[in-house]
Amino acid sequence: MNFSFSLTLEIILALLLVVMIWYSVILNRRLTRFRGNREQMEKLAATFNDATTRATSSIGDLRIASDALQDQLAKAESLRDDLVFLVDRGTIAADRLEENVRIARDEYVAGGDAETADPLEAVEPVRQQRPAPKVAAARGARNADAGDPAPSVGGKKPTPRSEAERALLKAIRSAN
Question: What pTM, to 2 d.p., does this model score?
Fold first, then answer.
């Protein structure tokens, strides 16, 4: 009994030694492959280091570009606000011109100023007689911007027309 126990133990140890030798051979092959690829690993590490350096400098460039874009965005928003303001003023001016032209046509048709051949010529006097509340507010804002004195409602001096108004009146005349 004692003999068979020691034989069994030796057989188990021999099997374990065989497994260990087989595992050592596999490990030795992998280490040999790893040592053979050492140059490739060094190149890979150098490439990774270069990529990291480039990424770091690119992050700095991106921050600079982001700051520049923020500045441009702020300027664009300012320009957008200016354009919205100008469009609002243009709309008010167009409404005012339309109102004045309508009033002048109504008076011209009703036998207003017979000497005036063109109803658009009568626009300025009519506007001085009955300015719309919206128009008066817009005119006051425009004149304040231009440094011109605000015309009185029943004013005697005609306010000078802006280039846009003259161009619009000219276009309306050419359309008629």
Answer: 0.38
